[in-house]
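Hey, I'm writing a tutorial for new members on how sequence and structure tokens pair up, and I'd like a real worked example in the thread rather than a made-up one. If someone can provide the structure for the chain below, I'll link this post from the tutorial.
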Amino acid sequence: MSVFGWVIIHQRLGFTFNWNFSWADYKAGFGSIDADFWLGLERMHLLTSSQPYRLRVEMQQKDTELWFSAEYWSFKIGDKYWSFQIGDELNDKYQLEVSGYSGDAGDSLQYEGDWAGNGWFNKYIHNGMEFSTFDHDNDEVNFSCAPYRAGGWWYNSCQWACLTCRANKNEWYSTVGYVVNSRMMIKPQ
């Protein structure tokens, strides 16, 4: 489905849907475009490897019900062009690559600082991370983030952003905090 030229790749409407799916499910996609939905990692990869893309993330804050957005407009693939891209399964485990943030939601995908002065610089960044599910642990910590957070995502140290996690871990931490509804969309540059 497309909204003003944006292709929806993820949609979450509330907390009733269980996002704790296997690698095969996240690869193939699941849900319904008029409800909770995941386009599929392989489809995302095929789209984003064919031409440069941008990513737009829209989310509704749980407490205030206000909507926020984050847009990422560039990613460098070698020296050829810039886009939002998801790598392939075999070589990159659907690695996420984004850059060029703008918006009012805060940049939770590229956050490089430490949290509350804990000294864990770059432990919360999602950019450059491989996708993880409960049956494919590709995160950067010594335990698996996906079962703990109950959803597949581009985890580093489990923190900062996850739009497919269980209700009390479904967040965009930079500005928004806990998220009740969310949508990720891509559009050719």
